[in-house]
Write a structure and sequence with these properties.
UDP N-Acetylglucosamine Acyltransferase, domain 1, binds magnesium ion, alpha/beta, 11-stranded parallel sheet, Spore Coat Polysaccharide Biosynthesis Protein SpsA, Chain A, 456 residues, single chain, binds uridine-diphosphate-N-acetylglucosamine, 9 helices
């Protein structure tokens, strides 16, 4: 089976510099959804017909699938769907089966496509659906015996034909050899002056072939021509994903306020509060709780970990029973060992916190290696950047870093050390003991007068 994906359309109504098929649903280009379906079906070749923004589409494909994963056919002028399909045909062997997909109809299911491919093994099979409002679609024409005789486009239909509610989704499967023969005969003498792919249906029927139909679901046929339709499809996709997670035992407190732009794997009894966004690959262990309005991108959290409201986690891992947030920001390559805490208004970047270590308030921990059971006080800053390079701060086990301490990297604080609040640490701190590095000793000026406001 070779898939031909039609993607030459400009998508004027998107009012965008991006070609229509590169607009995203669930964080993935519409075309990506369609390509992935073709891959799941095991297509021997995936041929994308491009026109408007061809270079952009190719660059996108190279970045996402690698050079050469897709085959390209260029349609410089858009003369209709039959003409578009024809551009890909020279690359498809006669013995193959062709599956026609649309790059801007992204929510078609593999199940429907599998049925279509099976039905179209020897004959022409088209996916159809009954719509309450069939306006704009090609209508399926059937004879008295319910045999398909053709498809008529909206603009060419008689009022009686327009009343037909069974419509053409545009998705079809057919043996390549038959398709090639019919395509050669398609003419453009119709209301739009285009070469309609749908004309092959009447040709098949006239040739005595029984055209098969496969019933699709309404959401599977919806295309996205403008931002409003795209937003609607986004909701459909999100609802599907949410339903699958609920089904799998994940407690989504409100499936209508949940967004997944990638893959989410969950253990048992995971709870996700409202308004969270998951991106890339996210893995949550058993009993993990995610508070409201969190963003997690490429994150792995161990069992029992809790993320409180309004935290942003990116490219990090946490072992079991960690507590993060509220209002925490955990940046890439951070590793949190079991039972560690990253509290409110704490930013952690490229750091490893040992088991049971806590940075609970208003701290910046960047480029740091921190041991176990260490306490990082409120307002502690690792000064990792000297204006030119980044430097590492190393902190041992059982260390107590007093509030508002600056650790000027590179610097090492050895096991068991205590650093007095407000210290600026520029040299290594030995194990144990209390180290204080304040600019001046505290003193009191007894007769000092507070400045007074001058009357105007
Ligand atoms: C087409 C079908 C119609 C069906 C509807 C489903 C035809 C003649 N009609 O109509 O029966 O109900 O889809 O959505 O096939 N494209 C190209 N090159 C072209 C023309 C189109 O690549 O020269 C691409 C478009 O970008 C789009 C797809 O093919 O992805 C369908 O084209 P469109 O113009 O939307 O066809 P419709 O008039 O909607
Ligand atoms: Mg269309």
């Amino acid at each position: 089976m070779h898939a031909i994906i039609l993607a030459a359309g400009q998508g004027t109504r998107m009012k965008s510099a991006k070609p229509k098929v590169l607009h995203e649903l669930g964080g993935k280009a519409m075309l990506g959804h369609v390509v992935d379906r073709a891959r799941e079906l095991g297509a021997a070749g995936i041929h994308v017909v491009v026109g408007h923004g061809a270079a952009q589409v190719r660059d996108w494909a190279a970045a996402h699938y690698g050079e050469g994963a897709l085959r390209w056919a260029e349609q410089r002028e858009q003369k209709g769907t039959a003409h578009a399909v024809q551009q890909a045909m020279p690359q498809i062997p006669d013995g193959a089966q062709v599956l026609v997909l649309y790059g801007d109809v992204p929510l078609v299911s593999v199940a429907t496509l599998r049925e279509l491919v099976t039905a179209g093994a020897r004959t022409l099979a088209v996916a159809t659906v009954e719509l309450a409002d069939p306006f704009g679609y090609g209508r399926i024409l059937r004879d008295r015996g319910r045999r398909v005789t053709g498809i008529v486009e909206e603009k060419d239909a008689t009022p009686r034909q327009r009343a037909i509610r069974e419509i053409n989704t545009g998705l079809l499967a057919v043996p390549a050899k038959r398709l090639r023969g019919w395509l050669a005969k398609v003419k453009n003498g119709n209301a739009k002056g285009e070469y309609y792919l749908t004309d092959i249906v009447a040709m098949a029927a006239k040739g005595g072939l029984k055209v098969a139909t496969v019933a699709a679901h309404a959401a599977e046929v919806e295309g996205a021509n403008d931002r409003a339709q795209l937003a609607r499809l986004e909701r459909v996709l999100q609802q599907r994903q949410a339903a699958a997670l609920l089904q799998a035992g994940v407690a989504l407190l409100d499936p209508a306020r949940f967004d997944l732009r990638g893959a989410l794997r969950c253990g048992r009894d995971v709870t996700i509060d409202v308004g969270c966004v998951f991106e890339g690959e996210v893995t949550l262990g058993d009993d993990v709780k995610i508070g409201p309005h969190c963003v997690l991108r490429n994150v792995t959290l161990g069992a029992g970990s809790v993320v409180h409201a309004h935290s942003v986690l990116d490219g990090c891992t946490a072992e079991h029973d960690c507590v993060i947030g509220p209002f925490a920001r955990v940046r890439p390559t951070t590793r949190l060992a079991a039972g560690s805490h990253v509290g409110n208004f704490v930013e952690v970047k490229n750091a490893a916190l040992g088991a049971g270590t806590k940075a609970n308030h208003l701290a910046y921990v960047g480029d740091a290696r921190v041991g176990a059971r260490t306490n990082i006080g409120a307002g502690v800053i690792t000064c990792n950047y000297d204006g030119a390079s980044k430097h590492v701060t190393t902190i041992g086990d059982d260390v107590f870093v007093g509030s508002d301490t600056q650790l000027v990297a590179p610097v090492t604080v050895h096991d068991g050390a205590t650093i007095g609040a407000g210290s600026t640490i520029t040299r290594d701190v030995p194990a144990g003991g209390l180290t204080i590095a304040r600019a001046r000793e505290q003193k009191t000026l007894a007769g000092w007068q507070r400045p007074k406001k001058q009357p105007k």
